[in-house]
Amino acid sequence: MEVAEQIREVSTRNLPSGDKLYVVELANGNQYTTVDRSIGQLAASNLGETAHIDFDQKQKGQYTNRYINNLTILEPSNGQQAGRPAPLFDDTAPEQPVVALEKDLQIAKAVALKAGVDILEHLPAEQRTVANVVTAAEFFTTWLVNWRP
Prior knowledge:
Elements: E1 2-14, E2 20-26, E3 31-34, H1 37-44, E4 50-60, E5 63-73, H2 102-118, H3 130-146
């Protein structure tokens, strides 16, 4: 399906999988979603502009879900140049901890331990302890598991 309408608002939601869902609301009041960051940022950087959206629509009970396949910004009718700077999305850690796959968690722990050991040389001699390596590794593991580009 297709629609051409003015972009009213773009918001994000964190999904239980850890992915970020971009919700694009058009002037007609309908909302269209995607997990594709480039589509979400393109929509956010062109608020107020008219977009052509190719989407799939699925009815689930009383709800209609619209999933964006492609979004193209049409030429602005007021002569302004399309493509204002994108607002920054909140890329901080999700409110709820992300459930990492066991393999991903093991990789994150290994990388974090390596980083913890690597910082030892930058610490004063009296702080070069196993306890400080463990503390650093725990911090880095939390950061690696919760950080999303």
